[in-house]
Amino acid sequence: MRAAVTAATALTATGLLAIGPGATAFAAEPTNPSGLSANAQPGAVPEMYKSGTGPKVRVNQVGYLTNGPKNATLTTGAETGLPWQLKDAKGKVVATGTTTPRGLDGASAHNVHSIDFSKYATPGKGYKLVVDGEASHPFAIGDNLYETLRQDALKFYYTQRSGIAVDDKLRPGYGRPAGHVSQDETGDLAVGCLNNGCDYKLNVKGGWYDAGDQGKYVVNGGISVFQLMNQFERSKTAKTADAKKMGDGTLAIPESRNKVPDILDEARWEQEFLLSMQVPDGKTNAGMAHHKIHDESWTGLPTLPHQDTKKRVLHPPSTAATLNLAATGAQAARVFAPYDKKFAEKNLVAAKKAWAAAKANPNMMASGDSGSGGGGYGDWNLADEFYWAAAELYLTTGDKEFADYIQNSSLHKDDIWNERGFSWDRVAALGRLDLATVPSNLPDRERIRESVVTGADKYLAALQKNPWGMPYSPSDNRYDWGSNSLILNNMVVMATAFDITGETKYRDGVLQGMDYILGRNVLNRSYVTGYGSSYSVNQHSRWYAHQLDKKLPPPPAGTIAGGPNGGNEDDLAKKQLAGCVGQFCYMDDIMAFASNELTINWNAPLSWVTAFVSDQKGSSAPKPAPAPADPAAQK
């Protein structure tokens, strides 16, 4: 997620070379005087946006777990309940009921009713809800509806990789040459500092491109790689987690079949980059981490990574980036220890060094406006980063220094569960969640676990009040940048409460949240590419730019869009969404980066939550998970 405005209107020529035998080749085309690629389609200059909202009956367009909750939302002018019918694929009525009026919804400016058909539990495809003569999009009922999405949400990261050619055999249609691997100033092999601010150059090859641009940012990479590693670590403690589903060979990446779980191989690609951003020993600010690396100025759309000719620069170190490295380094030391002890040790050394450097430089802030070419990612409150880093270091080492820091932090007992949820600049919850779930000897661990349940109760209450069934209700109905990720992160809290307590209501809350993401919203849209009848497919990206050049691919299946954003920060939204209300502040257009970008930190909670949902299989709740103090007690 980026808070800086992208120069989305600058358009350049593009070419894509697929890698691997039998791959499709995409040839470069010259630009024309208008600045558009010669292959650019009319979508490059979008017409007035129209939010075709489809059927009045909004459903989860993927479907519902057999024994899970099944809810839908109806937009209607009726003030009293209306009869509804559930029809199977043959048109046979299999269930009936009456809608529940919910009144005027401020987030959509619509009068809405709720529909609960949870009692129906017969698996099948092609179901439709019919109310007032109008049928919903089709959906399924079953136990294995999320297995493919579980993998696709993670496979997204391979095509976001920097510094490596994407093999078309592994991702048909998405093969491309490696980006930023040249030895000159346009590559990442020897990158100097902005304005010659340091006397060294770093090899920062690798990692994931952050979003629709070619920048790489430590704070956004930090929360993203955390959620991948946390998803894996959950499989060691959660009763319903299935570690085999994220094991070796599950993601079709170059490292598959190396006897390491693929999810960790993918996380390592980013973690290696984070390590490379640390200031070397003997240099000013040694141990700190550079905040980011990106081009000196914006590239246009479309521009594939290997076509980027802009100079690359390191931005100054920041305390926030350094603490992200301390946290993820400590976490990586823990999760990689059984597979690669040397890499685990390397991470722990870097984490401790970063912690010491951050303590010595506690107020080295990153500017939110640090020039063109990339997002700012400014953060002026670092208490949460210190808390998260201390938590991860304690869980890995057990050292008293970190235990004391945790318990002396005001965040350790504060109510950190606000309606906006956690994000790259609000990371106290990351520490709290790990302290609640990773076995340790922290004296007040049970209280920490109870605090997570309390947070889940808040989100569950918000969900129950919301006619769209999601744990997110901004008091002013002004949705945030990346609102879908905030919803998903709140669902992570509810899922963790389910893991802790075994109480079905938390699982059901997560399932209802997925309904919103996959179509139960005012726009009747699944925000995940490739899933549902009407889904987002034009997310802001410089290389998944099919809207601009039909020779280029759209975002891969399993890519989530940012979602409604009341800020309307991009020019297209300012013109076409002025005065929009709540959920209507979204458009599926490649130029609408404020609501329709893709990012690594938005797909991370999507992959986490879909893994959780996939693990449930619609079965009854398990017994509550124990709170082991001894790591040996992990399953």
- The separation of the N and C termini measures 35 Å
**What is the fold-level CATH name, i.e. the topology of the domain at 57-142?**
Immunoglobulin-like
Helical fraction equals 25-40%
Main pleated-sheet profile: 6 strands, mixed
Q: Based on Cα principal axes, name the global outline.
A: globular
CATH-level-4 superfamily name of the domain at 57-142: Immunoglobulins
User: What CATH first level of the domain at 57-142 would be assigned?
Assistant: Mainly Beta
Helix-strand makeup class: alpha+beta
Low-confidence stretches: 1-51, 619-635
How many strands in all? 17
> What number is the mean pLDDT?
91
Q: Per CATH, which architecture of the domain at 57-142?
A: Sandwich
Give me the number of helical elements.
14
Estimate the strand proportion. 5-15%
Radius of gyration based on Cα positions: 24 Å
Enzyme class: hydrolase
Keywords: Carbohydrate metabolism, Cellulose degradation, Glycosidase, Hydrolase, Polysaccharide degradation, Signal
Protein name: Endoglucanase
Active site: 540, 588, 597
